[in-house]
Amino acid sequence: MHRFFIAVSISAGLLAGCGGHSSSPTIYPNATPVGAMLDQTGTLTDFTPEFTAACQLAVEDENARLAAIPSGTRFNLILRDSKSNDAGAEEAINGFIGDHVSFVMGPRISSQCKRVLPIAQTHDIAVVSTRSVSDDLSIPNDALFRLISPDREVIPLVANDALGRGLKSICVLYRNDIFGNNALQIMTDKIRAGGGNIVYSQPYAPTGTPSDGDLQTFADAVRAQKALHGAETGIAYFGLSELVPAFAKLNAQPDDFRTVNAVASQSLANIPSMVTNAQAEAYCAACNFQAVAFALADHPAKELPAGSALLARIAARSGKATPDELSINVYDGMRAMLRAAQHPSGSAITSMQKEFATSPLGTIDTMHFDANGDRLGDFYGIYKIDTTGTPAWTRIATLTP
């Protein structure tokens, strides 16, 4: 089993790439190089400006904190272009080997991760993917970690809103993957705690949108549950940007289904540039849904003062007026990995790998970062998800450098 150490190395004159309206970074001599693999060219550049800004700000903020510590190290950020394809990602990871980095933020998509993972594994580079979700990447004790949108925060908010609207008998349509199953369990626990129940749940294939057959089956089931539970019947939909086309298809269902109350959530991936509350509300209005609670483009972190301020900084740096809110997670992920480099054990990655080696938990090693009271503070936790039985999160490492 590989152990991943993030150690201080000597690297003078490293250049950090810039994007959007970014300023020239300060280059520190004898600093620890850190990498960010981003799609700067090609077809996948839609999130690159804000992800770049998030990485730059995280490094700058951590360096500012370390400036007050006499023995504190410094970090230099190196950006490499993964060119929106697998070959570009491989070229970038090979470049990072020459840069002597110990961890890399990125790549973004699952196929790029699959290409770079064996190389990263061989050279003891920890890879922190920003958006990949493939179950094929759920390999215990490997070099890949993934940022997760805070579904543990979003879904309880949606559940509470549903309960507050009197929706206690919930029918769930969810993606049949690790994240969809985890979302279902969190929703189930919260609804039950509020005196309700998940009366029907139906998975659909993790690739693409629910099929017409899926929707028809779901419609029939909801119709049956509505006959039993009346106005307290609600729908919870856990998916990605397919929310809108799915609702468009629901509009073609019989009237007795279209009048069902709805709770809609896009809690597993925030893509406000593709799906907005207004779009989803318009579809629901066409479907005559009577009560709708959304967690689409309202990432809870953005609603916190620190999260809102950070998003404003990312907007200013990237030049995008409305940056994707997952950039907050990218900032948190980069900041936490910088803290890991200063962990007393030498590396929190090492501590995490040791925990995984003896852990009875499931198959995916996942990071979820949250602050203790202040999301931009000094406390970060690393979690692992158990998907072998009832999905559950367990804290396996605490970073308090």
Structure description:
Helix content is 40%, strand content 17%. The protein has 401 residues and is of the alpha/beta class. The protein folds into two domains: 32-149 and 305-399, Rossmann fold (3-Layer(aba) Sandwich), CATH 3.40.50.2300; 151-298, 3-Layer(aba) Sandwich (Rossmann fold), CATH 3.40.50. It is elongated, with a radius of gyration of 22 Å.
Set out the fold topology:
Elements (H helix, E strand, L loop, with lengths): L31 E7 L9 H19 L8 E7 L4 H14 L3 E3 L4 H13 L3 E4 L14 E3 L4 H14 L4 E7 L2 H16 L3 E8 L7 H18 L3 E6 L4 H8 L4 H4 L3 E4 L11 H10 L5 E3 L5 H4 L1 H14 L7 H15 L7 H11 L5 E2 L14 E7 L5 E8 L2
Parallel strand pairs: 1-2, 1-3, 3-4, 4-5, 6-7, 6-8, 8-9, 9-10
Antiparallel strand pairs: 11-12, 12-13
Keywords: Receptor, Signal
Protein name: Extracellular ligand-binding receptor
InterPro entries: BCAA_transport (IPR051010), Leu-bd (IPR028081), Peripla_BP_I (IPR028082)
